[in-house]
Amino acid sequence: MKIKEGKILKGIGGFYYVDTSDGVFECRARGKFRKDSIIPYVGDNVRITVDADGSGYVTEIFDRKNAFVRPPIANVDKLLIVSASANPSPDTLFIDKMLVTAQAGGVTPALCFNKADLNDSVLELADLYSAAGYKVFVTSAIDNYGIDNIINFMGNSITALCGFSGVGKSSILNLITNSTNFQVGEISLKLSRGKHTTRHVELVKMAHGTYLADTPGFSMISIPNEIDPSHLIDYFPDLSKYANCKFGDCSHTSAKHCGVYEAVSRGMVSHQRYENYKTLYNSLKDNKEWIK
Q1: Which residue has the higher pLDDT, 183 or 69?
Q2: pTM
Q3: Is the bond into 88 cis (omega within 30 degrees of 0)?
Q4: What is the mean pLDDT of residues 217-235?
Q5: Each residue of 4-30: b (16+ CB within 10 Å) or e?
């Protein structure tokens, strides 16, 4: 029996494919994990044992940097939020929700506005988020434009991509990995969104310890309930710098003595970002009230 350490690349049907210095091993999880209601996630750093017949078992899961239940992935370093400039149009509420979720999980977020060949007006949105302090990429997968900038951003990390179907995630993944492993979906004319093609989370290993993941289901994720509504403003850096309000418990959702509202009314802050903040604030507040 050999003992090895590695990273889970994929999990399907109770089998986990663990990348080690000696290659990838197909493993099952020891029963103790089921007993303790612990589920190995893609991205987990694990210890495995490999028997003489080649069968492997996950025996230990090392401490996680972070973990997301839906989709099940752990130890994410960076999150690339992919939107399309058109077909479908960018959803800024989704973008802001994912920015908050990433930051709350200790993940470095960045934005990618793909399909720039279809609508160059998306540059205004790119400038908005860039001015707010976020890393922004404008790409065209069909023209292979801007992809090198994403590769440079990834570095030595686990980088996950998220976004609605049809925005071009799979095309971008194929260009980054120089492969056709990721299935590209057709656009649904009825919904103006792509048909779902990715079925499970899987890490693709690249050079120098870099891992890339498509994350089906991330578009349905909710903001973590652990975030106190009163701290939500901290995840909006372009708004929080104006949060010098008269009252210390200001929710920044109304005009009364609110520095953020005043900045919005003067055109110093994006009205859309402010409206998204209020939507997310009320969602967190309502959820907290329900929990109580």
Answers
A1: 69
A2: 0.88
A3: yes
A4: 85
A5: bebbbbbbeeeebbbbbeeeebebebb
What local confidence, expressed as pLDDT, does residue 194 receive? Answer: 43
Second CATH level (architecture) for the domain 229-291: Orthogonal Bundle (1.10)
Could you tell me which CATH class the domain 2-62 is placed in? mainly beta
CA distance 240 to 291: 27
Distance CA 157, CA 141 (A): 22
**Helix (H), strand (E) at residue 171:** helix 169-177
Could you tell me which residues come within 8 angstroms of residue 69 by beta carbon, excluding any fewer than 6 positions away?
A: none
Cβ-based neighbours of 37, under 8 Å, separated by 6 or more: none
Cα 203 from Cα 266, distance rounded (Å): 45
Picking from 19, 141, 12, the residue whose alpha carbon sits closest to that of residue 80 is 141
Enumerate the domain spans of the chain: 2-62, 68-220, 229-291
Work out the end-to-end distance of the chain between its first and last CA atoms, rounded to an integer number of angstroms: 51
**Rounded Cα distance, 212 and 204, in Å:** 5
CATH 3.30.950.30 for the 68-220 domain, yes or no: no
